[in-house]
Amino acid sequence: MPDDSNVLMTVEETAAYLRLGPWTIRHWVCQKKIPYVRLGRSVRFRRKDMERFVTQNLHGKTDERNGSGATAVARPSATAN
C-alpha cells in the first residue's frame, strides 16, 4: 500500500480536504499561515503537512479517554438539583 502522506495536493484538493474554500487557502498562503510547496508558479500542499497543521491548531481540552482528539463534552452531574 503506497504512502500517500507525501502526495502533493492542489489548492482545490486542499480546500476540500480541510472543508474550506479555495480563497481561504490562497489567503493563508499569502499570509504564510499554512505550509506549502511552490513549484514554479504553482502552489501545492503535502497531506502530512495539512494533518500536522490541523493538529497544531487544535484548541480546547481533548477527550483523553478515547484519544480521538475530539473535544470533551461536559456532562451534567447526577447530584445536581
Shape: globular
Run of helices and strands: EHHEEH
Radius of gyration: 18 Å
CATH topology of the domain at 7-56: Molybdopterin biosynthesis moea protein, domain 2
Tell me the number of helical segments per DSSP (H or I, 4 or more residues long): 3
Folded structure, characterized:
The protein is an alpha+beta fold. The protein is built from three helices and three strands; from the N terminus they run βααββα. A three-stranded antiparallel sheet has the order 1-3-2. A hairpin with a 2-residue loop joins strand 2 and strand 3. The longest helix has 10 residues. The protein starts with 7 loop residues before the first strand and ends in a 25-residue tail after the last helix. The model has no long low-confidence stretch (mean pLDDT 83).
Layout of helices and strands:
Layout: E1 8-9, H1 11-18, H2 22-31, E2 37-39, E3 42-46, H3 47-56
Helix pairs in contact: 1-2
For this entry, give a set of tags.
single chain; 12% strand; alpha+beta
Q: What's the gist of this structure?
A:
With about 80 residues, the protein is an alpha+beta fold. The protein is about 35% helix and about 10% strand. The protein has a domain at about 5-55: Molybdopterin biosynthesis moea protein, domain 2, CATH 3.90.105.
